[in-house]
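hey so i finally got around to running the thing on that chain from the lab meeting. sorry it took forever, my laptop kept dying and i had to restart like 3 times. anyway pasting the input first so we r on the same page abt which one it is
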Amino acid sequence: MKHLLISIFCMLAITVSAQTVTKTSHKKAVKTDVVTTGTLTIRKPDYICISTDGGKDQLIMEGTKFTMIMGGRQHVTDGQKNPQFATFHTVLKAVINQQDIPQGDDMTIATKGNTTTVTIVPTGKKKRQLFTSFVLTVNAKTKALRTLRMNGRGEDYSEYVFK
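ok and heres what got predicted. didnt touch it at all, straight out
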């Protein structure tokens, strides 16, 4: 029921922007990557819903609360419990609101040509993390999100490409 309500909320949210997204899930142990499509819904000031595979996989940011549904399993965290997601929230909120991306100790920002790449790696105590790093690429001029890659343990990752 929660998944249905979250899906409906994502679809009915008043949006500032809706884009097509392609998600590639790579697992080292599996030969073929899984590629699905879906939508990116953005509502200011800091709401994002990435929904793929007919709503079966979702990444939702509501303020500092993050809900991730992957393979039918729901993971919830927030910036207070997980500093990596606090930094992620700060960066995404700046991108959504077309502001400059603030500097931080647990991130690097590099601009080459028309692309800004932000890499977020948790610092300090590394407790069991769902992701080892986040890598976002943003159009340097328009501040539009181009890709989001969430690196897991080993060589596993999920990458979203926004069109």
